Amino acid sequence: MSTPAPEEGTRRGRGRRPADEVRADVLHTVGELLLAEGLADLTFERIARASGASKTTLYKWWPSKGTLALDAYVHAVEPTLAFPDTGDIRADLLTQLRAFVHVMTETRGGHVLTELIGESQADADLAAAYRKLYSSHRRRLAEERLQRAQEVGQISASIDVRVLIDQLWGAVYHRLLIPDEPVTDDFVVALVTNLLDGIGPRPGLTPAAGTER
Amino acid sequence: MSTPAPEEGTRRGRGRRPADEVRADVLHTVGELLLAEGLADLTFERIARASGASKTTLYKWWPSKGTLALDAYVHAVEPTLAFPDTGDIRADLLTQLRAFVHVMTETRGGHVLTELIGESQADADLAAAYRKLYSSHRRRLAEERLQRAQEVGQISASIDVRVLIDQLWGAVYHRLLIPDEPVTDDFVVALVTNLLDGIGPRPGLTPAAGTER
Amino acid sequence: MSTPAPEEGTRRGRGRRPADEVRADVLHTVGELLLAEGLADLTFERIARASGASKTTLYKWWPSKGTLALDAYVHAVEPTLAFPDTGDIRADLLTQLRAFVHVMTETRGGHVLTELIGESQADADLAAAYRKLYSSHRRRLAEERLQRAQEVGQISASIDVRVLIDQLWGAVYHRLLIPDEPVTDDFVVALVTNLLDGIGPRPGLTPAAGTER
Amino acid sequence: MSTPAPEEGTRRGRGRRPADEVRADVLHTVGELLLAEGLADLTFERIARASGASKTTLYKWWPSKGTLALDAYVHAVEPTLAFPDTGDIRADLLTQLRAFVHVMTETRGGHVLTELIGESQADADLAAAYRKLYSSHRRRLAEERLQRAQEVGQISASIDVRVLIDQLWGAVYHRLLIPDEPVTDDFVVALVTNLLDGIGPRPGLTPAAGTER
DNA sequence: AACTAATCGAGACGGTACGTCTCGTCTTGGC
DNA sequence: GCCAAGACGAGACGTACCGTCTCGATTAGTT
């Protein structure tokens, strides 16, 4: 009989619980709070109350509410956006950008993500974690796809493909974070067209002109 | 004889002061606090102590610390970036973007601005004020310059020039807000080149070769 | 109509309340908590919850829970023990000591007082307040009565009456604070008798002996 | 060789140690902490860190920090005050009281003792342990000496000598615990004189005079 | 000599209180 | 009337300690 007899009741007591169990509880709770109320109303105090974990434990693992929220977002909320490769870079960029825009504008996770970016402006820990856990990974996926397009000649060899990421996804983030203009499908199409074709007057279409350079 | 002599020091007492004087004191104080410590450590409480205004007065004029900070930023900090028009859109975009990047990366005001954008993700009042006082104005200036370029044929007529703003300045904001990659001069040059020339293989320049390499 | 219409409910809001009203609420609440549960279980947190005052307010006025408890004890609990003067110092001491012992052993205030003395061993603020608000006052009353007895020849002129206070009330406190022996009426009687008559062999009763000096 | 070489340092590891060794370490550590910082800043947490024992072990042997502190005080700090017997009770009381006062006012152990008495007002375990380990023992020593004085006629047979202990040592504790008045040598002398000789007018010495002055 | 059972250290856990800070509301008392 | 000064209720902050517990490592008694 290695099991100690639990004399009276199933009272859990205050002692230690397995760390993984606690972590899972916390991340699940924070995920729900984030989707329900956003990052602004999230506090360590409420997380502790709602998750059953103590503040001590929360502070032990996460340096700020932002890093905790990011952790919960990545583990519980984030839909992993696949990056297609059909061989046609124009079509694949459109597909991926449309999927990204859909998540950011039609799901509650989109607002959480912009709040995390906002919070990271004042929280260096969060900024570092965000880059490590999220953005650099996404950036690398895009970079790899663009490099393959470059290798097969769909993108000029002289181009630094990393800049394209800022001119495509970065442009979308710009309209999400500073919403002077809406994020429409026309906008997404224009992003890709402008870059692939250029915005100068069509060379060959106006043979006599040749304004540039 | 029981009245304490008020002659020592500039101790102001509690009576009413002209509204404009108070406003000016507050905005000046907040401007200094912003540059010295950023938006994160700014509070109504500290502003009241440092400026001599009472919290009552602050709440009467500004709904949140973000809107107050923005007000101070616009009135006291922001260097107004002129938008050049030499007739050459490529050169003018480079000039403007370089000036913008300089302010954002080399002055302390740059960090304040990204903090304001961050704060606005959780403060609807600030988001609205930011668009009204700052971004829509800047956007219109750029839009007008781009439209003039379009009218003289430097930009194809089929282009929605508002999208270009997101692909130029928006791309810079992207690297400022999510600093996976640095904001270099090469980056700025690439932004303009990519858009004006397009990133696809150069059509017509190498008729026999086809795709590069 | 100077009265603002209280639109919905009688919700008090969060604004300022008159200081005296708050103080009275707090002292009343602490008085009840003290008598019900003693000083050990008293915390600022519970006082704030029970009294409706905020912790900020409590810390503004009282440096520690001990000083607050003492304040409440003096204002709300302490029965002022009169000091009789019938002309007979032996009888008056007995009367006063018996009243004192009654309060300390038969009422709940007695335990509060010993807890306050205990707490004051580790709280210099409380120790100072205790002397200022309580013990030095009580001491002076006793001292005055004893001096009058000295002036009418009931106590020898060579005696420092302040020492007597320690040998009477101090002896009682000793049995209250370190309860090896009970505080009985016989004990009280013996305190007075021992001092007034001395404990040496009775001079005059054994004319031939004269052991001492 | 996966076993780490244990030769460097005296790093103990986590295995079981002899109980007596652990107890001695703990009591030694607590004794030092007590003298250095007093009882107020003593916690189980710090004792565990400083002594190398785990909290589990501490809680197994001592129910509260007070009882542990008392244990350490008695075993490590307390100078055993001898009780002299020269045959002259007046001289012996003075000797013992002076030695006692010296320890209480001139050594750091004095403050520890008053803190222990203070703590015992809110800790029944400590109060019981204090009586058992310390005060009742000291009381018995004094009682025995006083009884011998009574047997040889230096103290009247009708006196309950236990009361004298409260009127001598208790009076000193009173001034230590509630320091309205200082504990001077005059005070100590007066304690003994007042009791042995009484404080009333000297009977038989000035038969014609009556009351003084 | 190997095995078992106890007991140790280390320290995470759920709680609770600490003392401080800021929020947004409200009262008081000059001006 | 409007203002400063700042007290107020509310509640989050990050830390410390409480007393309970899990986990391995080590050792003392049994086999």
Q: What does the overall shape of chain A look like?
A: elongated
**Unreliable parts of chain A:** 1-13, 204-213
Structural class of chain A: mainly alpha
Give the quaternary arrangement of the chains: homotetramer
How helix-rich are the residues of chain A, as a percent range?
55-70%
CATH homologous superfamily heading of the largest domain in chain A: Tetracycline Repressor, domain 2
- Portion in beta strands of chain A: under 5%
Rg of chain A (C-alpha, Å): 24 Å
Distance between the termini of chain A: 88 Å
Assigned CATH architecture of the largest domain in chain A: Orthogonal Bundle
What's the total count of β strands of chain A? 0
Number of domains of chain A: 2
What letter string, H or E per element, gives the SSE order of chain A? HHHHHHHHH
What key attributes describe this structure?
homotetramer; 213 residues; mainly alpha; Arc Repressor Mutant, subunit A; Tetracycline Repressor, domain 2; 2 domains; elongated; disordered C terminus; DNA-binding; Homeodomain-like_sf (chains A, B, C, D); transcription cis-regulatory region binding (chains A, B, C, D)
Account of the protein in words:
Chain A starts with 18 loop residues before the first helix and ends in a 16-residue tail after the last helix. Chain A has 9 helices and no strands. Chain A folds into 2 domains: 59 residues, Homeodomain-like (Arc Repressor Mutant, subunit A, Orthogonal Bundle), CATH 1.10.10.60; 109 residues, Tetracycline Repressor, domain 2, CATH 1.10.357. The first copy, chain A, is elongated. The first copy, chain A, is mostly helical. The N terminus and C terminus of chain A are likely disordered. In chain A, helix 5 crosses helix 6 and helix 5 runs antiparallel to helix 9. Chains in contact: A-B, C-D. Chain A binds a DNA duplex (31 and 31 nucleotides) through helix 2 and helix 3.
